[in-house]
Amino acid sequence: MRCAVSVGPIVALNLVLIGISGVARAEDLNDYPTSARAEYVFGCMKANGETRQAISQCSCSIDIIASIIPYERYVTAETVLSMSQVHSTLGTQFRTSEQAANALNDLRRAQAEAEVRCF
Predict the structure, then answer these.
(1) How many CB atoms lie within 10 A of CB 98?
(2) Over 17-43, what HEC string results?
């Protein structure tokens, strides 16, 4: 009986530690839809050759990116990339916004990590 009493606080402490470490990371969410992953792979393959090796490298790349930044942040960065190419006041806002720059920097850092690990 004494052993069961001393295990209780240990189990409780472990549950607390698991709860604290339960802060969601991008890789835990796995929130990238298949269509977004496929779109990335297709674009990546166009840029890197349409070979079997490119499929593997590009698939690896989106998996690394997905493990680093959540999908919502990825969509924001992709929107910034797209809208910053517009030659108007709207495009200028996307090119000069600090929030847009931060989202884009997050994506670029994730892509650089993916480049190192996959290519």
Answers:
(1) 7
(2) HHHHCCCCCHHHHCCCCHHHHHHHHHH
DSSP string covering 47-69: HH-SSHHHHHHHHHHHHHHHHHS
Residue ranges of the domains in the chain?
Answer: 27-118
User: How many CB atoms are closer than 10 A to CB 82?
Assistant: 11
Round to the nearest angstrom and report the end-to-end CA distance of the chain: 58
In 3D space, the residue among 65, 13, 12 whose CA is nearest the CA of residue 36 turns out to be 65
Alpha-carbon distance of 43 to 77, in angstroms, equals: 16
CA distance 3 to 102: 53
Per-residue model confidence as pLDDT tens for the chain (119 residues): 444 444 444 433 343 444 444 445 655 667 999 999 999 999 999 999 999 999 999 999 999 999 999 999 999 999 999 988 888 887 887 778 899 899 999 999 999 999 999 99
